[in-house]
């Protein structure tokens, strides 16, 4: 069975030393409640829960999967009991507001817990994970009555939530949805239609499931401007606010899928189900995006968690597996062969995984500080800047970290060789589970269009300029430090090129909008690599300052510098390819007519 241990030492480095989370928490309204002891307790108990409760269910849940029996879904053995422990531990309420029954702690602490859950049992983690987004939507857009009846249940964890967007004939293009909402005399609606790919749409972990459903009212305008958001409970609340009469929503079937077998991915049929409007009519997408943005960051964390888990297991295997001798001579002469970790190519794969995990963690926790400010600080310049940067980085977190997370899990299989392809080691499951992260909550292509088209070009690059100015100031402040030159020099050049590439694409797009789509994925990947380069450079500076104090764990800080050096030498050069592909333009992609794609084989 694969192992997983929450990387608490690295989490503390990023939080306390790199980003100074203690000072960050002190500036928040609830800062007095976030002492170092509280943070330490959350991290340590979260790590214990992940390793002792969730990890043992990961492989068994994958093998057993979910069962659909008479419209009811049974989660794998042990999942319900683990969820009960999760609720009893108060985890669902960690970052929720006190007026809704929450503990009022910063969202960043919940995001740290999410990494641990994703690293130990992604399929299980999706059941409570979607509830966070549903709670956000109700908190921002629900009525007082909806918050009293439904939000408090989500916060305590006795009820869970879903997102119901996709339909059989449409995915990203939500303007095509056919689900209908007929108004009733009592103010409710009758919801009818079919939704597919609904994660955790039906299960036996909680007492009730709250579906947040996109649908169209009879008088709705055409397209996406006519979409409204509705809350459709599995069980309608009774007079005491508990789960009562069964509503007209059932799971029609379970999807047979590549990975995350322990999570129920459902076809949900709404047959005149009672639903309640959330927010204003025809403004459903705006309400849903509140939920989707939280979910996108959550999916990025899934990529990070799987990258860390794959790295830990590949590292343990590489230290023990004996194969061949080192090219420079035996390193373990007393053994029949050397451990494979002595071989340069194995080290390349391990360092790739390590850099992805540690770089991803820095990106998530940098973003987490922005989330804290946006969610807990009042309006002002700091909050406005955090909101802008968060909008810029959210598609990067989602798409870049899931692309790299999938790469890391594939490298994990490769380190194991043939054993990685065998089920018992658990490495192939990580690849299967990671693959969906590049698809749901908006594919990499959709995130890339959001980044380049909406977040950058639509505001003439102002949001990007704010971030590149931050990087520029860091480079300027460390320009005279000789030890930082291998990091600051390349970073400064790429940071400048980032703006130039953006301007070039924008100029081309003025005459041909296809240029945006042609460049977008490469632009997103380029943006991700440069962002991680900035964070790795900051980590080097931080590690060098720590080493100057001769710490007892000097090897930890030396490893930080070595990992950053590997990133700059081996992974950051990928930006050259992405830049070249961006500059190639759209013509080579769009010149061939659609019929010509199939020439060479008979259809």
Structural summary, described in words:
The protein is α+β, with helices and mostly antiparallel strands. The chain is built from 17 helices and eleven strands. Strands 3, 4, 5, 6, 7, 10 and 11 form a seven-stranded mixed sheet that branches. It has a two-stranded antiparallel ribbon with strand order 1-2. β8 and β9 (243-246) form a beta hairpin. The longest helix has 37 residues, at 284-320. The protein is globular and about 80 Å long. The two termini are 45 Å apart. The mean pLDDT is 96.
The average pLDDT value, as a whole number, equals 96
Main structural class: alpha+beta
Low-confidence stretches: none
Number of helical segments with 4 or more residues: 17
Overall 3D shape: globular
Task: Give the end-to-end Cα distance, rounded to a whole number of Å.
Answer: 45 Å
| Gyration radius, rounded | 25 Å
User: β content, as a range?
Assistant: 5-15%
* Percent of residues in helices: 55-70%
**E-strand count:** 11
Helix-strand pattern = HHHEEHHHEEEEEEEEEHHHHHHHHHHH
Biggest sheet statistics: 7 strands, mixed
């Amino acid at each position: 069975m694969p192992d997983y241990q929450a990387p608490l030492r690295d989490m503390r480095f990023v939080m306390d030393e790199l980003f100074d989370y203690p000072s960050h928490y002190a500036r928040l309204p609830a800062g007095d409640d976030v002492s170092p002891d509280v943070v330490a307790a959350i991290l340590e108990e979260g790590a214990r829960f992940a390793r002792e409760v969730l990890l043992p269910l990961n492989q068994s849940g994958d093998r057993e999967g979910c069962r659909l029996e008479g419209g009811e879904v049974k989660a794998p053995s042990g999942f319900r009991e683990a969820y009960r422990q999760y609720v009893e531990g108060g985890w669902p309420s960690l970052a929720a507001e006190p007026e809704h029954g929450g503990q009022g702690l910063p969202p960043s602490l919940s995001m740290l817990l999410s990494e641990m859950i994703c690293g130990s049992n992604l399929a299980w983690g999706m059941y409570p994970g979607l509830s966070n987004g549903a709670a956000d939507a109700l908190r921002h857009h629900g009525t007082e009555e909806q918050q009293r009846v439904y939000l408090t249940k989500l916060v305590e964890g006795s009820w869970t939530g879903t997102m119901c967007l996709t339909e059989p004939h449409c995915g990203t293009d939500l303007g095509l949805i056919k689900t209908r909402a007929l108004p009733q005399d009592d103010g409710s609606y009758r919801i009818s239609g079919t939704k597919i790919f609904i994660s955790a749409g039906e299960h036996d972990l909680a007492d009730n499931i709250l579906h947040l459903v996109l649908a169209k009212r009879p008088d709705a305008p055409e397209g996406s401007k006519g979409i409204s958001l509705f809350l459709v409970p599995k069980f309608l609340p009774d007079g005491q606010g508990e789960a009562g009469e069964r509503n007209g929503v059932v799971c029609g079937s379970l999807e047979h899928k590549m990975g995350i077998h322990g999570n129920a991915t459902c076809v949900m049929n709404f047959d005149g189900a009672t639903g309640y409007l959330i927010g204003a009519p025809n403004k459903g997408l705006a309400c849903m995006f509140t939920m989707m943005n939280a979910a996108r960051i959550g999916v990025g964390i899934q990529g990070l968690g799987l990258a860390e888990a794959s790295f830990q297991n590949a590292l343990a295997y590489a230290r023990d597996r004996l194969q061949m001798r080192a090219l420079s001579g035996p390193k373990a002469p007393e053994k029949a062969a050397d451990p494979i970790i002595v071989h340069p190519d194995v080290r390349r794969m391990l360092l790739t995984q390590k850099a992805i995990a540690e770089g991803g963690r820095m990106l998530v926790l940098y973003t987490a500080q922005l989330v804290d400010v946006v969610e807990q600080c009042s309006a002002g310049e700091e909050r406005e800047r955090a909101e802008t940067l968060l909008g810029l980085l959210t598609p990067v977190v989602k798409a870049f970290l899931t692309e790299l997370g999938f790469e890391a899990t594939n490298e994990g299989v490769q380190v194991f060789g043939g054993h990685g392809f065998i089920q018992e080691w658990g490495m192939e499951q990580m690849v299967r589970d990671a693959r969906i992260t590049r698809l749901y909550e908006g594919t990499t292509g959709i995130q890339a269009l959001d980044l380049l088209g909406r977040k950058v070009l639509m505001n003439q690059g102002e949001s990007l300029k704010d971030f590149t100015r931050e990087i520029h100031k860091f480079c300027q402040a460390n320009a005279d430090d000789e030890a930082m030159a291998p990091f600051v020099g390349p970073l400064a050049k790429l940071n400048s090129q980032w703006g130039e590439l953006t301007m070039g694409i924008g100029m081309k797009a003025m005459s041909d909008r296809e240029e945006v789509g042609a460049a977008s994925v490469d632009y997103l990947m380029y943006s991700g690599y440069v962002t991680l380069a900035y964070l790795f450079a900051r980590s080097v500076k931080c590690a060098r300052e720590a080493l100057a104090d001769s710490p007892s764990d000097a090897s930890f800080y030396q490893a930080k510098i070595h990992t950053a050096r590997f990133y700059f030498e081996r992974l950051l050069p990928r930006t050259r390819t992405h830049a070249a592909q961006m500059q190639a333009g759209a013509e080579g992609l769009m010149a061939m007519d659609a019929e010509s794609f199939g020439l060479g084989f008979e259809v």
